Structures are given as C-alpha cells and as structure tokens.
Automatic annotation (TrEMBL):
<keyword id="KW-0175">Coiled coil</keyword>
<dbReference type="InterPro" id="IPR011993">
    <property type="entry name" value="PH-like_dom_sf"/>
</dbReference>
<dbReference type="InterPro" id="IPR029071">
    <property type="entry name" value="Ubiquitin-like_domsf"/>
</dbReference>
<dbReference type="Pfam" id="PF09379">
    <property type="entry name" value="FERM_N"/>
</dbReference>
<dbReference type="GO" id="GO:0005902">
    <property type="term" value="C:microvillus"/>
</dbReference>
<dbReference type="GO" id="GO:0005886">
    <property type="term" value="C:plasma membrane"/>
</dbReference>
<dbReference type="InterPro" id="IPR008954">
    <property type="entry name" value="Moesin_tail_sf"/>
</dbReference>
<dbReference type="GO" id="GO:0003779">
    <property type="term" value="F:actin binding"/>
</dbReference>
<dbReference type="InterPro" id="IPR019747">
    <property type="entry name" value="FERM_CS"/>
</dbReference>
<feature type="domain" description="FERM">
    <location>
        <begin position="74"/>
        <end position="364"/>
    </location>
</feature>
<dbReference type="InterPro" id="IPR035963">
    <property type="entry name" value="FERM_2"/>
</dbReference>
<dbReference type="Pfam" id="PF09380">
    <property type="entry name" value="FERM_C"/>
</dbReference>
<keyword id="KW-0472">Membrane</keyword>
<dbReference type="InterPro" id="IPR011174">
    <property type="entry name" value="ERM"/>
</dbReference>
<dbReference type="InterPro" id="IPR000798">
    <property type="entry name" value="Ez/rad/moesin-like"/>
</dbReference>
<feature type="coiled-coil region">
    <location>
        <begin position="371"/>
        <end position="531"/>
    </location>
</feature>
<dbReference type="Pfam" id="PF00769">
    <property type="entry name" value="ERM_C"/>
</dbReference>
Length: 646
C-alpha cells in the first residue's frame, strides 16, 4: 500500500507539472490531475493504478511529441468588410501579431477603432484578446480559423475624427450593413437619402444614358422592413432614389461615404452595444455602451434611453462575478450597481468601457504627434485627390464640350446635306422649268410669227378693201366679216403671246432663285466639311492626352477611468444638432418624402420601432436632445431613477 501511495504522489507531482504546459496539452494535464485528486482519500486498487498508468503513458507520450516536434502552421482566414485575407500562424502566435499583420496588409493606421471578432465554442460573438496566444482562446477548432475584422469602437463625429480613406470605407461598409440588416433602426425616408449616397459612393455621378431604368433592381439599398411596409414597386423606389442621387453630381466617392456616415451617426442606435442587465429590484433593462457614455433603456425600447452617464462622470468600474459596480466622480453619489446573466458579459462590458472611455478622453485632449502627422499626410493626400479630380472634371467638361460641338457639327452637316438634297431637287425642278421655258419661248416665237402673218393678212385685206370699194355689197360684207374674224384671232393670239411672255418671265425668276439656292448650299456644305475635319483632329488629340493621363474568467476586476482633473471635460455631444437638422433644404425634402410615403404605408406592417420613432418625432426629440434630457440633474438623482425603474 505504501508503494501505491508513493506511486500516486509521483503521478500527482507529474500531473501538476503537466498542467503548466496547457499551451501544448490543454486537456490531459488538468484532467489527469483532477482524476488523481479525487482518488487521494480512497483505496487505490491495482486495476485503478494500472488504468492511471496507461493514461499517464499515453498522455506523456503525446506531450513529449508535441514539445519535441515542430508544430504545423495553422491556417487563418480574416474577413474584412470588402475582402478575405489568408494567413498561416504558429501555435504561439498572439492575437496582436495577427492583428498587426491584418492592418499592415490593408494599410490601416487608425487601428484603435478595430478588433478581430470570432464565434467561440459556446456560440457567442467574442473579441480576440490581443495579449494572449490565439490557440489558447476559446476558438472553434475549424480549418481555417475564422475571424472578422470589424470596428469595435465608433467615433463621435465622423467628419472630425476619421483621418484615412481606408478607415472611412471600413466604417461606411459596416454601418451600411448594420442599417440594411436592421441592426440600426433607420426611418424609411432617411433610408432613401442614404441609398442615394450609397449609389454615389459605388457608381459615381448619375448618368441617365448609362444608368438605365431598372438597373437598381438587383441592388440591396434598403432594409427589407422598409420595402415590405410600403406599396411601392421597385421602379417607384428607384425613381425616388435617383431623384436624390442626381443631386450629388461631382461629389467624390469618399465624400459620399462621409455624408452617409454623417447622417447615420445621428441615428439613435448607431454605435451602441446593448447588454441585458437587472437593477437591484430585478427589473429587466438594457445597458447601452457607446462612444459618449453609458445609457439605460427600458426592455421594450432600445431606441430612446431613459438615463445617461457620460464617461467624464465615471471614476472607475469593477465587477465581481455577475455584479457590476460603477463608481461616479461625484463623491456624494452612491455606486451605480447592476447585474448581468453571465460572467462573460461583464468582461465584455468592462473591455468596451475601457476602450470607449479612453477614446472619449483622447478626443478632448490635443492630438498626439503621430495623429498630427497622420492628419497632415491625409490632408496632403486629400488635396492631391481634389486637385486631380478637378483636373479630371475640367478634362471631362472639355471633352463633353468638344463632343457637344461635334454633335452640333454633325447635326449641322445633316441639315446641310438635307439642304443639298433639297437644292438638288430644286435644281432638277429648275431644269424642268427651263425646258418648259424653252418650249414656251418656242411657242411664243411661233405665236408671234403667226401674229405677224395674220396682221399682214389683215393689212392685205384692208388694202384690198380700200382698192375694191366699188365691189358688190355682198362681197364687201363678206370681206369685212373676214377682217373682223381675223382681228379677233389676232387679239386672241396677242393675249396668248402676253400670257406666254409673263409665264416665261416667271420661269426665268424661278430658275435664277433655284441656281442661287444651289450655290449657297454648296458653299455651306464645303465650309461645314472643312470645320468638322478640323474639329475631329483636335478631339483625337484630346483623347490621346486623356489616355496618357489615365495610365499615369471569475474574480474581482477593477479599472480606474476618470481622475478628478478630467471630471469637467466638455460634453460637446449635448449641444450638437443632427446633420439633417443643420440642412434645411434636406429637412424640407425629407418631410415631403415622408408625407408622400405615408400615403402608401401598409399599417399592418408597422413595427414597434416605427411607432417609437414616430412618437419621438411628434415630441420633437432626436438623439442629442434626448441625451441632454437624460443627463439632466446630478449623478445621485439619476442613480436613484435607475434603481426605481420597473
């Protein structure tokens, strides 16, 4: 029995050693130690010892092989908002090493907003701890290991804080996805405005000849909630979006993303992490952690906070198991205490509080040298982009002007060709007229000759009449009748000659006019052809220039947050106005759009958040007015209010 005890003690010591090597053998050492510990007060049978020995041998062999043999690289896949990155890591690679590799790959310098997210073995979304080895964290054992690169903290004011375009794009894509998936509630009329900025950010300027009707049919631009709530077809939604999009002409894609975020950051649920909590009464509530502080929400309303604590009012935070304690700066105020369902939630709350508080205070201090350099570099790059864009705009404008002039010349040439055809037809008609004129002249000449002959005959008859005055009366009457008949014929011939003469003069005038028009059309066509050839040469030179340019765990945790010297930092957020409120034109148009949409709304599909939003709007509340209201009064009053919530 003594030998068995000695053997047991040896095994126990060895197992304790193995526990120290859990990085390589996480299961064996702890399980073996626990098994032996349970047997310490019991009689150890020979069969039990043999079983322990077999387990020990197998485990030790596995441990030996793991330590002595080099580990194989582990495949890791990191998904950003617009790319997938593949890496190979070692068993001792830390979270920070992987994070640094990711930000280096995508060229990100504003790293303080971001983190690596994964789904742990229990199915919870968790942030990778940067100071621990990756394989020691509760990862699902899959190949490759899956991570998401996401924003963990949000800026207060996008336009003032975000420096790099890559940072702007990552925030834009993440916030847009949150709005489209309804993680962030957005009013219907605002989704239309945001969709127009999304189109500008993706496609640039709207061109009716390129963006034909129906091209937005397959684009995901609005939450399904909005589409289902209104009796509008895809074409009708597209028409409303395009009417806004067409007004963003010449806006850079980065500017469109910035405008999108300026409006999105004014939404009540933007950047808020929600956690289920209870007060001392056991009332179920929501805790919201964001860039501005801690807010308390009723269980049925995550849109409108009821109590707020800015980061500057919080001295330190701590938790013990499921109890979370917030100690205010105000020494007269009691501690702010709440309870969470699981320990891991307190850990997440603590981490978010630390990060958001740090950024809140940093924003209220002068920029570090590194940030100043980043801003200067970003400003220079921005100026270069603006100058480049202005140059491109000038070239595009010049090209459009040249193309317009080319089209004008082509239209003019078509007109002139039509004039030429018309002139040719006129010439043909003139030639026909000339032929008719010649024929008419010939007929006129014949008529004149006939007239002269008849006049001669009448004259002859007159002479004869004078000579034969002595003739009989009957012959005289006959001769006079003949003379009258001949005179009537002569008068008719004279009228015919006069008419043909007038017709001939008219035909001559028509011929002269036709010849003049033909001459003018020929000269104009010659001028237009010469100018068009000159313009085409200049246009080809411009295209060539543009082508060349284009090539160019449990236990107590406590963290100190705000010291007394920073207790009175400014709370800029309470004096802010929403981006829409600052732009009266957009506000008016959105109100009109809302009134128009209201007529098409299906009342049966209105959600609880729609009702809450409409109530807030009727009461004249927005994100910042609510913030002012819920921070009113001293800290103790708000803590009392929290503890009395039901």
């Amino acid at each position: 029995m003594l030998k068995l005890e000695l053997f047991y003690q040896a095994v126990l010591k060895t197992s304790k050693i193995l526990v120290r090597f859990q990085d390589h053998l996480p299961a064996f050492g702890e399980q073996f130690y626990t098994s032996c510990d349970r047997l310490s007060d019991q009689q150890i049978a020979r069969s039990t010892v043999l079983k322990i020995w077999e387990v020990f041998k197998a485990g030790f062999l596995r441990f030996y092989l793991l330590v002595k043999m080099p580990s194989k690289p582990v495949s890791v896949r990191v998904t950003t908002m617009d790319a997938e990155l593949e890496f190979a890591i070692q068993s001792n690679t830390t979270g920070k090493q992987l994070f640094d590799q990711v930000v280096k790959t995508i060229g990100l310098r504003e790293i303080w907003y971001f983190g690596l997210q994964y789904t742990d073995t229990k199915g919870y979304i968790t942030w990778l701890k940067l100071n621990k080895k990756i394989l020691n964290q509760e990862l699902k054992r899959e190949s490759p290991l899956q991570f998401k690169f996401r924003a963990k903290f949000y800026p207060e004011d996008v336009s003032e804080e975000i420096i790099q375009d890559v940072t702007l794009r990552l925030f834009y894509l993440q916030v847009k996805e949150a709005i489209l998936s309804d993680e962030i509630y957005c009013p219907p009329e605002t989704t239309v405005l945001l969709a127009s900025y999304a189109m500008q950010a993706r496609f640039g300027d709207y061109h009716p000849d390129v963006h034909k009707k129906g091209f937005l049919a397959n684009e995901r631009l609005m939450p399904e909630r909005v589409r289902e709530q209104y009796k509008l077809s895809s074409d009708q939604w597209e028409e409303k979006i395009v009417s806004w999009w067409s007004e963003h002409k010449c806006m850079m894609k980065e500017d469109a993303m910035g405008e999108y975020l300026k409006i999105a950051q004014d939404l009540e649920m933007y950047g808020v992490n929600y956690f289920e909590i209870r007060n001392k009464k056991g009332s179920e509530l929501w805790l919201g952690v964001d860039a501005l502080g801690l807010n308390i929400y009723e269980k049925a309303d995550r849109l409108t906070p009821k109590i707020g604590f800015p980061w500057s009012e919080i001295r330190n935070i701590s938790f013990n198991d499921k109890k979370f304690v917030i100690k205010p700066i105000d020494k007269k105020a009691r501690d702010f205490i709440f309870y969470v369902p699981r320990l891991r939630i307190n850990k997440r709350i603590l981490a978010l509080c630390m990060g958001n508080h740090e950024l809140y205070m940093r924003r209220r201090k002068p920029d570090t040298i590194e940030v100043q350099q980043m801003r200067a570099q970003a400003r220079e790059e921005r100026q270069q982009k603006v100058a480049e864009r202005e140059r491109l705009q000038r070239e595009i404008a010049a090209r459009e002007a040249a193309e317009k002039k080319q089209r004008e010349y082509e239209d003019r040439m078509l007109e002139m060709q039509e004039d030429m055809e018309r002139a040719k037809r006129d010439l043909t008609n003139a030639q026909d007229t000339i032929r008719r004129l010649e024929l008419s002249l010939k007929e006129l000449q014949q008529a004149q000759e006939n007239l002269a002959r008849r006049e001669e005959e009448v004259k002859h008859l007159g002479t004869r009449l004078a000579e034969e005055r002595e003739m009989e009366a009957s012959e005289k009457d006959k001769l006079e009748a003949e003379i009258r008949r001949r005179e009537a014929e002569i008068a008719a011939v004279r009228r015919e000659v006069s008419e043909k003469d007038a017709q001939t003069r008219r035909l001559q005038e028509e011929v002269e006019e036709a010849r003049r028009r033909q001459q003018e059309a020929s000269e104009a066509l010659l001028r237009a052809t010469t100018q068009a050839l000159h313009h085409n040469k200049a246009h080809n030179v411009f295209e060539h220039m543009e082508d060349n340019y284009a090539l160019s765990n449990g236990g107590d945790y406590k963290v100190e947050l705000t010291s007394d010297e920073y207790a009175n930092v400014p709370q800029w957020e309470v004096d802010r106005q929403t981006a829409i409120e600052r732009n009266q034109n957009i506000q008016t148009r959105l109100d009109a759009l809302n009134a128009d949409l209201e007529k098409m709304r299906d009342r049966d599909k209105v959600t609880e958040y729609d009702v809450l939003h409409m109530e807030n709007k009727r009461a004249g509340r927005d994100k910042y007015k609510t913030l002012r209201q819920i921070r009113a009064g001293n800290t103790q009053r708000r803590i009392d209010q929290f503890e009395n919530m039901v």
